[in-house]
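Case study B.
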Amino acid sequence: MRRIGIDTYLEPVIYMRSECHICRSEGFEAHSRIEVWRGGQHIVATLNVVHSPLLALDEAGLSEAAWRALGGVDGEQIKIFHPQPMHSFSYVRGKIFGKPIDAEGANAIMRDIVDGRYSDMEMAAFIATCAGNRMDTNEITAFTRAMINVGKRLEWGRHPVVDKHCVGGLPGNRTTLIVVPIVAACGLTIPKTSSRAITSPAGSADTMETLAPVTLDLARIRRVVEQESGCIAWGGAVSLSPADDILIRVERPLGLDSDGQLVASVLSKKAAAGSTHALIDIPVGPTAKVRSEQAAQLLGARLIEVGQALGIQVQTIVTDGRQPIGRGIGPALEAHDVLAVLQNLPDAPDDLRQRALLLAGQVLEMGGKAQPGKGMALAHTVLASGAAWKKFQAICDAQGGMRVPPRAAHQHVLTAAAGGRVVEIDNRRLARAAKLAGAPRAPAAGVLLHVALDTVVQKGQPLLTIHAESPGELAYAKTYVQAEQDMILIDEDR
Amino acid sequence: MRRIGIDTYLEPVIYMRSECHICRSEGFEAHSRIEVWRGGQHIVATLNVVHSPLLALDEAGLSEAAWRALGGVDGEQIKIFHPQPMHSFSYVRGKIFGKPIDAEGANAIMRDIVDGRYSDMEMAAFIATCAGNRMDTNEITAFTRAMINVGKRLEWGRHPVVDKHCVGGLPGNRTTLIVVPIVAACGLTIPKTSSRAITSPAGSADTMETLAPVTLDLARIRRVVEQESGCIAWGGAVSLSPADDILIRVERPLGLDSDGQLVASVLSKKAAAGSTHALIDIPVGPTAKVRSEQAAQLLGARLIEVGQALGIQVQTIVTDGRQPIGRGIGPALEAHDVLAVLQNLPDAPDDLRQRALLLAGQVLEMGGKAQPGKGMALAHTVLASGAAWKKFQAICDAQGGMRVPPRAAHQHVLTAAAGGRVVEIDNRRLARAAKLAGAPRAPAAGVLLHVALDTVVQKGQPLLTIHAESPGELAYAKTYVQAEQDMILIDEDR
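Model:
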């Protein structure tokens, strides 16, 4: 085996010479699926046939994904086989022909997916087959259970264990980092695991990482939660729902989000985290993930129904998703917003504060710490008193020590080309600008918004500041925002 | 650009260093889709990111598929862009959510597919979405038309132009090489284009190639047909249905054949070849492609209906697909069977002869050369008189000169482990054995069958002979047939 240094994204690829005796005698061709064994470990990889002296005849190259999955050292011996036939794909074929997938089928599919037996194409076919509204509640429940079965599961021996989650699509919406300390300060157990950005400029885990370590193992998560009642850790590090981690990375490039897959994804992670109660935030807006009130209602009903089947009490809350929350978009910029709210600074972004208090209040009511209608007031008290800030610092310490989020060295201000009233803000294009500036890879990079919907601006007034860690990335994001100035749409007549 | 010598099968892949300024400034990551321009030509390729010195920082490597599509020489300059958004995939998404695809959508999808804009995953999602029975006759017709629109189309200025086609799955079923000369000898126009093997041990084009050149361009096909009324050429060389050529290569690994896709595939090629009449052979058997009489009837009805919409008169014929036709499985072995039938040799395989006469008779009736019920007798006369053999030699000469099919140097005979009656023959495992022996890459390789259903054998009597061009391949196929002896199932009690 040889690490060949090619990153093929998700799919493990094995490279072999076309003239090597194995390709010839086994009848392997480009795109054959091959079972690769190293000691007692194995993966299934796709063959790319090499016609050049990139590899010696007795070498097999492994892509980064294959190398990660198999481990090992250059020069070690591996064994190669035709893979066992993959029976679970027959359930996918059956579904294509109209046969619902039962619990046995769902378990077999998820087992093969986490074992790496599905090629990218098989995964895409599976996702297309289950998208649309082709899964009923029974199927979604079966898949959610199957996703839980192939991952780890936390047990707390406490009741209730609460959680909050946002279905996403709204830049800067970092309420998690405020809700967790408020709720934990009230003594509720909230072991929050968050994701990193997949297509967005920052996930909650990325933002938290600028403030404290988030790559915690299960034992560490347990210690932090036992000590502080809450944590904000990166979920990917503990494989709570490894099947979902794989599926998401195929769904995104296809743009094939569906309610069924979203419900299974969210609830499998909540169940694996040991949650008994979960509040799900569904922002609605023309450039948010969910674009209509009706779609939000349907999604909410599914979440509640499947949650019930799994024994999780789910509540949903539909919120305003017409514009970003807070001012910063990008890990460190969002962290500064969070700190301002937690520290009760006078210039803290009020929309982030209000949104966090609303959600924290609901969670406190669900967890029995406040009477119905009294949760938000309690959350407000805990935040204003400094108890939430103290709890946040304690959580950071328990996770490995608090950090100061970085500031970007390179900045550029975009100003209004004309005066008027801000009538539309495009979440998606703002997110793209922040990514072009380097977020989330460069944690200090991103976009700082200076206006919100209904702000009245003068010509030449700053609309946003691009933050970048390198001059090249700054230039690149600058070109984009200048070409797409209407991502902040100003009505000159109003 | 640099030809990196990696065969990724269907998908064009571009390799660039992770630290190169393009990846960094453009935000390209592993699996990004990238538009690559060389002069006025372009392709869309998938990015694999290189972390090793496989490439210089200012080099982009191209996979074999990308290199073929783009042409060029090492060291030439290429330009790289973010691809235009691919609007046609929104029709696929719409279909997933239940919206039928109209003519405009079908045209857009097929155009993007032949332009290489679909990734493997997008193609797999499209195929899964249209499989099952999810396409009605209107949609199948729209897709067939769209597949015709993106390819070339032959016009003959003659009427009728006849064709025959087998939906496949039956080893050794090389009736084409006998039907074409019989029909052409009667003066009917039959410009037959055949495929090479995709997953089988031989396609008609592979078998024909051991007897004469088959890689003809359109002008040559035209000359052969004008002179001899018929040809047997490789369809892939003339891109009659390039979209289908691409789709088939994704459908096979997924095992997602569907009636709709099969109908579009077959009829787009018939229409592109300028056929006015087509006879479709549908073999039915437990290890054939179509497994029940009912499935054959449904498929037949679809073929006739869509044919009608396209102005092609389609007839279908359901035949016995319980065992291979003829004795040989593999290009040259099948060619020897064909020659024995055409030359009226006494030991010619009678099942191949009878099947070919049945089909030729039907085609002669469809083309108006024989009264209903009299076609098979006419075909018999033409074959027995030597006129078909003469015509076949003339077609071979016109295609570039007749060849003698090779014989394999290495052979192994499998004998019966016990006496009894042959009650089952597994088409699929026999095909696999022939492929392990080297077919179709090694044209002389394959399997020669010595028994058929209902043959009574003695213990030790030869069942089949493996033919191989190398001792290694012989050993490999031998191991397989010894382990899978029940691919020829013998009932000892009968």
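Chain B touches chain A through 57 residues (CB under 8 Å). The remaining cases will be described in the next quarterly update.
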